[in-house]
Amino acid sequence: MRSGNPALSDNTFLDLGSGALVQGDAGAMTLDGTVNKTALLLALALAGALFSWSQFDAAMASGTPGAILPYVWGGAIGGFVVALVTIFKKTWAPFTAPLYAVLEGLFLGAASAMFELRYPGIVMQAVGLTFGTLAALLLAYRSGLVKATENFKLGVVAATGGIALLYLAQMGMNLFGFSGMGFINGSSTLGIAFSLVVVVVAALNLVLDFDFIEQGARQGAPKYMEWYAAFGLLVTLVWLYLELLRLLSKLQSRN
Fold first, then answer.
1. Strand ranges (DSSP E) for the chain?
2. 137 close to 206: Cβ distance less than 8 angstroms
3. How far apart are CA 108 and CA 157, in angstroms?
4. Three-class secondary structure of residue 181 per DSSP
């Protein structure tokens, strides 16, 4: 079971000691349970986003825009740390996944408000495209129109890894004062093409996540894996939303 999502890797459902499939006797993972927990995580993320957005508005009204920075960096760094903990301690997912959702919501709300201030209407466009993509790919996957074959999985995983390495290289270059990959954030034709590719790859990761969750439910993974699977799907949705915001901002900056 391969997924480009780092939270949903090949050995997610395997016992680290024996290498055997982890199964729950008292209760097993189900698709319905995973869907319900995904909806709950999305609601928590939305609540966090609405709160930080309101704080952004208050900060701008009072002339202290710096007051929103704790929500941006606290949500981003805190969410990253909690995500790592969740990945390495999957049994903690019932507690860490909701915390991750709230922290990411705080970050997304503040970041979205900044984008909205500069490009009015961009947030609703990005939200609509994110959930529209989710619905379309889920329908395509359930109807069999899109199948997560081994070659498909390999291609998406390779593309995801390549993008991650490119982002890491850019961060390293910026850290040392170099700016050799300005197309990543630039609004040139190359920059827009790059963002389009990243959005497509992020969207295709949803297909891999659907397949991964379905296999976990079929193999009888323990109940807490519903939380972990919902967390993994939320990771992909957050990435897709941010990349759509980046793409839309590039397109609007050219107008």
1. none
2. yes
3. 25
4. coil
